[in-house]
Amino acid sequence: MSGFGQEALAGSLFAHWSDNFPLAVTTVYPGTQIDAAGQSEWLEIWINAWQRDPRRAAGKEQVDVSVTVHCFVERTLDKGRILELADAAKSTLEHQQVPVTDQSLSDPPVVGHLQLFETQTRTMTRRDRDAGRHGLQHVVLVTSGMATEV
Question: What is the bridge-based pairing of β-strands 41-52 and 27-28?
Answer without folding.
Answer: parallel
